Amino acid sequence: MAFRCFYAMPELTRSDGFPTGAIHAFFSGMVRLLSIEAPHPACAFFDKGGSSRRREIFPEYKANRASMPESMRQQIPAIKDMCDLFGMDVFEESGVEADDLLGSMAVKLRSKGEDVTIVSADKDFAQLVAPHVRQMLPPNSRVKEWTFLDTVGVKTKFGVPPSQIAYFLALTGDAIDNIPGINGVGPKMAAKWLKEYGDLESVIFRSDWLKPEKFRKIVGESAETLRRNLELVKLDTGIPVSDPKVGKPQFGELLKFLDEMEMRKGILSLRKFAKEVYGEEL
């Protein structure tokens, strides 16, 4: 979400030249999100070195990504501070991808009967969608509003239910993470095969039956690549994570933060948020 904010905004700076574009957009997003069905506990997950496990499986994992722009790097600590001041728990762990931490938290909370909303555009999270777990997609160039994905929404969007998303991504690949799929196999074909055979191993086992016929030999010879892909795209939901704290925004400290960042419109938004959601005058 922080990266989306960074690239969605023009370059903004404080009077001393410190970049603030991503901070401005992230703050607006937090006010919007924390106003929905509020108040509620919330967590933010950050990468801290990425996934050691996935790089061991496939050294080229995410190798296509450019290094973080310096102006973005400068804003990350402030964004983490902002999350904390909003009363959010911040989770990060060396060698563990943020996606796996988030997945572990979602599964843990669902097992306790909690309702969970995952806020991300990442299609990997569709595999977590289930009763009491939904995904919230941010606006994009085609859809101007935040939208929710439940189990029906996942099936409509991808052509497969959440239980088959990992198999689906193993077949199609994921260019964003530098995971190559089967050349020529797109979402519709992957969904068709999974509807017919159920899971990845069955698609591999039945490769001689696949249609179009030109994929039969290719899929059979790509079995190990497909199994590797599945290990890469499947979220690890068994990582121990502590229960999120039920925090309340530290409005006084948030006002100081916004003043320090010279975010005058942000101060007005915060005052409105505090009054409408928490009944507090700032």
Features:
two-stranded parallel ribbon; three-stranded mixed β-sheet; 8% strand; mainly alpha; 282 residues
Q: What is the structure about, briefly put?
A:
The chain has 282 residues and is mainly alpha-helical. The chain has helices spanning 2-8, 21-34, 52-57, 70-85, 98-111, 151-158, 165-172, 187-197, 200-205, 214-221, 223-233, 251-260, 264-278; strands at residues 43-45, 89-91, 116-119, 133-137, 147-149, 173-174, 179-180. The strands form three sheets. The chain has a three-stranded mixed beta sheet.
Largest sheet geometry:
3 strands, mixed
Distance between the termini: 28 Å
Share of helix, binned: 40-55%
Hey, roughly how much beta strand do the residues contain?
5-15%
Describe the fold and architecture.
- The chain has 282 residues and is mainly α.
- α2 runs parallel beside α4 and α7 crosses α8.
- The chain starts with a helix and ends with a helix.
Question: What's the structural blueprint in terms of helices and strands?
Answer:
Layout: H1 2-8, H2 21-34, E1 43-45, H3 52-57, H4 70-85, E2 89-91, H5 98-111, E3 116-119, E4 133-137, E5 147-149, H6 151-158, H7 165-172, E6 173-174, E7 179-180, H8 187-197, H9 200-205, H10 214-221, H11 223-233, H12 251-260, H13 264-278
Parallel strand pairs: 1-2, 3-4
Antiparallel strand pairs: 4-5, 6-7
Helix pairs in contact: 1-2, 2-4, 2-13, 7-8, 7-11, 12-13
